Amino acid sequence: MTNEAVPKPHDPFAALRLREFSFFICARFFLTLGIQMQSVVVGWQVYSLTKDVLSLGYIGLAEALPFIALSFFSGHIADIVSRKRIIVVSTLALIIATGFLAWFSSDASGVIHRLGTMPIYIIIGISGLIRSFLGPSFPSWLAQIVPRSHYTNAATWNSTVWHSGFIAGNAVGGLLCIYGITQAYCAVLGMVGLSLLFVSLIGDKPLPVKEKVESLRESLAVGINFVFKNKIILGALSLDLFAVLFGGAVAMLPAFADKILKVGSTEFGFLRAAPAIGAVLMAFILAYIPQKKNAGRNLLLAITGFGIATILFALSTNFYLSLFLLALTGAFDNVSVVIRHSILQLMTPDNMRGRVSAVNNIFIGSSNEIGGFESGVTARLMGLAPSVIFGGIMTIIVVLFTAKVSPEIRKMNLKEIE
User: To which CATH superfamily is domain 15-203+216-417 assigned?
Assistant: First the structure.
């Protein structure tokens, strides 16, 4: 008879068995659902008004600039103020901003009629400010809700729920455009309101104890230095930054739907949802087969696959093939997302999560919007399909460069970090 302990079998649903985590992911789902519905509606509305690919890029720029400007400050706030309180106030502010979009777009107000797209860009800029506070608060709060042993599993399900909201939001947003822009914005208000309800069901958590009182400047410097001195965190963030910056085709989807695939708003909604469909399917695989032992190698392979699928999408003129290729980009991207989130949760001290999440959001969150602007500019200069091919090629080049100069990433093993 042996006294050796029998290892417990892997439980793919471990985090979901936690009551407050279930409320947390419901809140994330409805917030993501509403935000993505709004993103689809705004993109379709702006492109319908302008018929200009660069105007789609301006949407990303309008949101990214204020997001970046306040991200470090909001990360500092997330480490010294109740994260639940930040989320509640920010979500209420988002509801007000969306209400203005609905009013601007109504025939009764006539605002869009008189002023064109400028009011839309202003509200999107305000939404960027709000997102800068939501960005560091949600992941920091998540780390307080689940135990450390569940971080990787929680990151997988958190990603699954986010992508599920992305799927539904893009599909529903496209369908709602048929019934009217104002009505679509009103539906967004309902989804964000449900998110706020689930947030209210989670108890507030005490902030981690700070070792010493820091000035704002010292606090921000500590968070930035922590990221830039940690080669694994910096490498993972940099990979995702350039992959999203160069490889994203989503911002140009209204133009692809109109000019290349010749489809309407409903099909456009499904195109927007396709990456998230692939991501959700991949998430279920990751829940059963955690990416721990060869995490670094798998991260590099996944981003390479993302770049290849992006190039093939740009070459496609068939709607169903394009759907499939976009789904592949989402599947590959989700491998990267889960590994990156696991690294951040495992390697970041509790009292620095807000600031480190803020750096992550500048690298990743804003790169979606800056990537959208980059896509709009390159599409204007190179043409629609060539600009996306260029982005996919640049993504692969970044992976090859990182693999050569960063052996820490290639050899990364999450089991050792745990």
Answer: MFS general substrate transporter like domains (1.20.1250.20)
